[in-house]
Amino acid sequence: MANSPSQSDKWVVGASPATSHHRHQTSLETVIDLSASAQAHAPLGPAQRQNAQHTFYSITQHFEEADAGAATTTGRHASYSRPRLIRNSYDYALSDTSRDIFLRAFFAALALDIEEASVVEPAWDEPSPAYHSAVLRAQAADSAAPVFTGTDERLSSLRGACLVRDRHRCVISRKYDMAECRRRLEQDQDEARDDDGVSFSQQTELSMLEVAHILPHSLMKTTTGTDMDPSRQAALTVLNMFDTGAAHLIDGVDIDRPRNALTLDSALHALFGAFDVYFEPVPDASPNTYRIKSFLPPLMTRTLGLPVTRTLFVTDTHTIDPPSPRLLAVHRAIAHILHLSGAGEYIDAVLRDMEGGSVVRADGSSELGRIMRLRFWGWIDEAVH
């Protein structure tokens, strides 16, 4: 095989972080190679893709076995596996184009020639830390996209549009918005009715509702001015690994479009933002129909009334876009990757151990972009606000 690792480059298991709140080793922008490459976007031929897949799975299987042994030896959190995170990230990419980008970046990160990726069996005695950087470079491979521009605060307008579209109800629990109910009762008293014309005297399910971004609003916030800082530009390139071009759906002001938002009660908002609840399309059903599932323990799942099938609301005039099936698919892919790699459980344990700060703000919303990045790469920022 060309460009095989030299004896001096013997690989050692890149142990996942210890189960404590250690600070991250380096900033995201210094790890991800954001250089554009036309070759990185070239599709693979059928035979070449098959050979590359075989080699990829051979390598990741080898690393998963080594990583499991290291976890047993060191006593660290055994369910979280970075090699498995890499494999699941590839498996849940949503198109052949995205998977080809991932494979090219993976091979480049390991200094292997993808053109010679025939039946390759790993022959290294010890794995290398390069495998950890492989997923980061793979996720950043579709970096030819332009610099993304940050957004101003448009949440008030977005909230109004989503409440109208979703008939002032949580799209999962169907609980009605408590604030809107009060406003209508004070205005119309006993004649007050919901958006479907049903009297409030016949309803008891009320809740404080919030706007939940499908892909997080914090990805597009800026620290100064209107330009995106490098770490957020890098985070957006992750989206293209799952679905090439998906990042453009939330470019600039589009992050705050109704197609990237749902109306949820506060509890479901937190769980959806943590990728514990996800939407799965129902085959052969009417448009915008989903089976809503979770990775929560069975008792919690039943308490929330999940799983449940819902057809999302649309306005009669179709002037407000429904939630984007494409963005919901990316959210679902992230949820599965975190669950199957054990990353979600590991990061939850780390968050419980963190001293000071809060991951949830007073209004019930979260720094979802930061939590997503933290979950993906296994480190913690110096503060989570």
From TrEMBL:
Residue ranges occupied by any HNH nuclease domain in the UniProt entry: 200-280
Domain of life: Eukaryota
InterPro entries xref list: HNH_nuc (IPR003615)
Sequence segments annotated as region (Disordered): 1-25
Entry protein name: HNH nuclease domain-containing protein
